[in-house]
Specification:
4 helices; 14-stranded antiparallel β-barrel; Porin; 15 strands; globular; disordered N terminus; mainly beta
């Protein structure tokens, strides 16, 4: 019995290593809503960009069994008041044994520079938490390695800064997320590898048959190669239906469809293939659901 116990710490170290790599792959495939439906998810400058109160909820789940699965839940609220925007951004991630949560409040300022053209500046600030789910561990939950990890990962301050330019057709933006890593170098050792930057540019073409908006996104990951996303969103003239396709340089793709009802309710469903071909024997990808509610437009 003692001989089996002495191998437990080594087993736990190997398990944590596997969790690290699984978490990284999960982050290579972000929520599809960041591209078109809810850009506030990736850039605080879009808080209050649209008039009225906007409520967005997203759910992403790997198509695997319960053990080791990756789940992401987000909820955002943003409201425009004069030239200012106020928002709340909450995300709750679960990757195997890891729980990582962010709670951010946002402020944005929207500056009109000419007819139909504007600059947007935004800042989000709040806390990030990360810990091992003790209830999901099969073994000795009182092991020193487990306790030490959770004790080290105390809630920490976090912030995102973003800016954007928009006109009738063009949107260009840049975000510096996870700014705590700039001030607290020790955070680079956290299991949840943060995004180092997010940049994007898109142009919307309007026609009688509908709207076409191609988009290019370039985002960085600490200690890993940057990822290039390129795709297009197609929508009907009344914007009641849309379809999007994104290709990612992480060797996967995303396909999504959306429906809008009464201009106030938008539903989106998407599927992403695995980011690494060798993972396809374990998971065929992930599915995502997004819901947007738009109120108080006047």
């Amino acid at each position: 019995m003692e001989r089996k116990t002495q191998y437990y710490p080594y087993f736990l170290i190997i398990l944590l290593f596997l969790i690290v790599n699984t978490s990284v792959f999960a982050q290579l495939s972000p929520l599809v809503s960041v591209y078109y439906q809810n850009q506030y998810l990736a850039n605080p400058a879009f808080s209050g960009y649209q008039k009225g109160l906007n409520v967005n909820a997203n759910y992403k789940h790997d198509l695997v069994g319960e053990s080791g699965t990756s789940v992401n839940n987000t909820l955002t609220l943003d409201y425009q008041y004069n030239k200012m925007g106020f928002g709340l951004n909450v995300s709750m991630d679960k990757d195997g044994l890891i729980n990582a949560n962010r709670y951010l409040a946002s402020y944005a300022y929207h500056l009109n520079i000419s007819e139909g053209k504007a600059l947007h500046f935004g800042l989000s600030a709040g806390i990030t938490t990360e810990n091992l789910n003790m209830g999901a561990i099969i073994g000795d939950m009182d092991d020193d390695l487990v306790m030490q990890y959770n004790n080290q990962m105390q809630p920490s301050f976090d912030a995102d800064f973003g800016l954007a330019y928009t006109d009738k057709n063009l949107t260009a933006q840049f975000t510096i997320p996870n700014m705590r890593s700039i001030l607290q170098k020790q955070d680079v050792d956290r299991i949840y590898t943060p995004t180092t930057f997010f940049s994007a540019i898109s142009y919307k073409f309007d026609g009688k048959a509908g709207h076409i908006e191609p988009k290019i996104v370039y985002r960085g990951l600490r200690n890993y190669d940057s990822v290039l996303d390129a795709g297009v969103n197609l929508s009907t003239p009344t914007n009641n239906f849309n379809a999007l396709l994104m290709y990612h340089s992480s060797n996967n793709a995303t396909l999504g469809f959306g429906f809008t009802f009464q201009q106030n309710y938008q539903f989106q469903l998407a599927y992403s293939t695995p980011t690494v071909s060798t993972l396809r024997q374990y998971s065929p990808g992930n599915f995502q659901v997004g819901l947007k509610l738009h109120f108080l437009q006047n």
